[in-house]
Amino acid sequence: MTPAQTQRCTLLLSTIITLMALTTSPTASAADTPQTEVATSDALAPARALIAQGKWPEAVAALQKVNDSGNADWNNLMGYSLRKGKTPDLAGAERFYNAALRINPKHRGALEYSGELYLMLGDLPKAEARLAELEKACRFGCEELTDLKDAVAQFKAKGSAAVVKP
Question: Is the pLDDT of residue 144 over 80?
């Protein structure tokens, strides 16, 4: 092999290694993932644990303590906790879901949950709009898409009766 060929092979190998590193490194933020996956920081872990236990007021308090309103996951979790509480704050939940989607328009959790919220409110067109956005965000399918599709189908089957519980 000539020195010029060796140099080209070295350059090509270096380029391949760089491209592999770029495509295998975790570049997606947690805001691009469902609410059950890795949080953007450990600061959300206590709230996630409380949500998993169905302790909605405590989860809201934990999220308020973190106060990371610039984080799509934080907004999604806040909206979810407000919607799931014993006395749901649906208007508050909508504000937080919309904030999450302003930060990350493809946030699968916020798209699913806001679609469910709209079904709770009897607003099928808005729920279907969220479903359409979720279909774009989940090109190869995802749990959030399946869940919202099922909820919309149930809503329609029951004559537009709210089927999603807070």
Answer: yes
Amino acid, single-letter form, for residue 38: V
Using CA atoms, how far apart are residues 154 and 71, in angstroms rounded to an integer? 32
> In sequence order, which ranges of the chain are alpha helices (DSSP H)?
3-24, 45-52, 56-66, 72-84, 90-103, 108-120, 124-137, 143-157
Q: Which residues contact 124 (CB under 8 A, 6 or more apart)?
A: 118, 152, 155, 156, 160
Instruction: Convert the pLDDT of each residue in 63-103 to its tens digit.
Output: 999 999 999 999 999 999 999 999 999 999 999 999 999 99
117 sits in the region (left: phi over 0; alpha: psi -120 to 50; else beta) called alpha
Q: What percent of the chain has pLDDT over 90?
A: 67
Torsion angle (degrees, nearest 10) of CA 11, 25, 113, 65: -130
| Of 85, 86, 87, 60, the residue nearest 75 (C-alpha) | 60
Q: To which residue do tokens 């984080």 refer?
A: 71
